[in-house]
């Protein structure tokens, strides 16, 4: 089964959703190929990093602290240590280019490892994920070869491809992340509970095994909308 996950490095619900989905795949036990697709919550975010607390407060005012607190509490249950005091907000396009490199040249498993590393770098370690030097260190720690990463980030490789994937996501109607697309046919939005993801994996398996299964990419099997982020706004 192939699952394409549209998400952003700067999306806290994408981190929670990844942890829950990873656990669901383990419980499901079947063969699942996971491919990460790019999405930018704030596509016009500047290249210079800004402290997360100040950035969020400017956009959402006093409720921004409650937003962070709720996500941090839920994250702890998934083994995630959010550090919003250290986190930096920055344009994530470079990070998505790096994920494209990992997926196309080193495979889905390495791409997944890099995705986990980038989320941890951004949300737990206060790393500027818009800085090529910092991104290089994260990528190398995730198993990518330093020379290739440095060469890649020094040029414009992958930019056109990532822009095309971003456009493809818009064409599919994806407006919030994380969004999980199963077999190119069913979309499930939000950081669902692990049990829900397991049920979806089982149902997709049953649907694809049945002859003449209806293909409707807008209809999610056995799952309602979960908590997600859209246009820079996250569920509280």
Automatic annotation (TrEMBL):
GO MF annotation: an example: oxidoreductase activity
One matching Pfam family: DSBA
Top-level taxonomic group: Bacteria
DSBA-like thioredoxin domain span: 3-202
SUPFAM superfamilies named among the record's database cross-references: Thioredoxin-like
Name of the protein in question: DsbA family oxidoreductase
Organism expressing this protein natively: Streptomyces tateyamensis
